[in-house]
Design a protein that fits this description.
CATH architecture of one domain: 2-Layer Sandwich
Strand content: 15-25%
Structural class: alpha+beta
Shape: elongated
Order of helices and strands: HEHEEHHHEEHEHH
Distance between the termini: 50 Å
Number of strands: 6
Helix content: 40-55%
CATH topology of one domain: GMP Synthetase, Chain A, domain 3
CATH class of one domain: Alpha Beta
């Protein structure tokens, strides 16, 4: 009987277990992911992780039974967000002397990272990529090759980004020295509706959720019913027995 009670308890814990969805997230992104999942009816949460010198990060959790649905739902909303590097982190002092070519490549990469970060916070943007090219000037040539940039944005269906192409182009032009507006290409791509629909729970998941919701209280009652007699027997065995005292003659 005690083994059956233990098995029921383990099944109950498995039904109520939690799984890590994404780790190493900023608090802002963790809050956004938790809000999205809770709006969809998923009991999501976050846990603080102390990374020492790497800094504090957050882990987003959800019930194990909702793992597949939660990851699809977050993926349809463009999560987890990409981690962007700043100019300070890219050009931090490391004790080595870089060549002019390396410095130019690092500058282009840093500018692209900063621009991607700025574009990603625009409402409706799910993902963005920016490519910046600033050709090195040849001191022996009078020909000056102009700088250029390409921007690719994947946005959420329904977001009105077509009317913001001019502002997006101006953002890139003002961030790169010597860049002309006609040398900036902006490509907008709407996320496929099928990827958003994939976040909806299927029939199997809905049945599984209902079964877990029905099974959890039943297992709790069975475990209590089977475990209570064993607990009472253990208490009775632990209770000291009264010995008969023989009066002194």
């Amino acid at each position: 009987m005690s083994r059956l009670a233990l098995l029921c308890s383990l099944l109950l814990l498995a039904a109520c277990g939690r799984a890590d969805l994404y780790t190493g997230q900023s608090e802002r992104h963790a809050n956004e992911m938790v809000a999205i999942l809770k709006t969809a009816g998923i009991d999501a949460g976050k846990q603080k992780v102390d990374g020492g010198q790497a800094g504090t990060s957050w882990t987003v959790t959800a019930p194990e039974g909702d793992f597949s649905r939660a990851t699809r739902l977050l993926g349809a909303q463009g999560y987890p967000r990409a981690a962007y590097e700043s100019l300070g982190s890219i050009f931090k002092k490391e004790g080595f002397v870089s060549s002019p070519f390396e410095e130019r490549a690092r500058l282009d990469y840093a500018l692209a990272q900063e621009l991607q970060h700025s574009i990603s916070i625009i409402d409706g943007v799910m993902e963005s990529r920016v490519h910046v090219t600033q050709p090195a000037r040849d001191p022996l040539s009078d020909v000056v090759r102009p700088a250029s940039a390409s921007v690719v944005i994947v946005y959420r269906p329904g977001a009105n980004l077509e009317g913001q192409v001019g502002q997006l182009r101006a953002l890139v032009v003002n961030a790169v020295e010597g860049l002309a507006p006609e040398n900036v290409t902006v490509v907008l791509s709407a996320a496929q509706p099928s990827s958003l629909a994939a976040a909806e729970p299927g029939l199997g998941e809905r049945l599984g959720d209902g079964l877990r919701a029905l099974l959890a209280p039943v297992l709790a009652i069975v475990a209590l019913a089977l475990g209570w007699p064993a607990l009472r027997r253990w208490q009775l065995r632990r209770r000291p027995r009264n010995r008969a005292v023989t009066p002194a003659e």
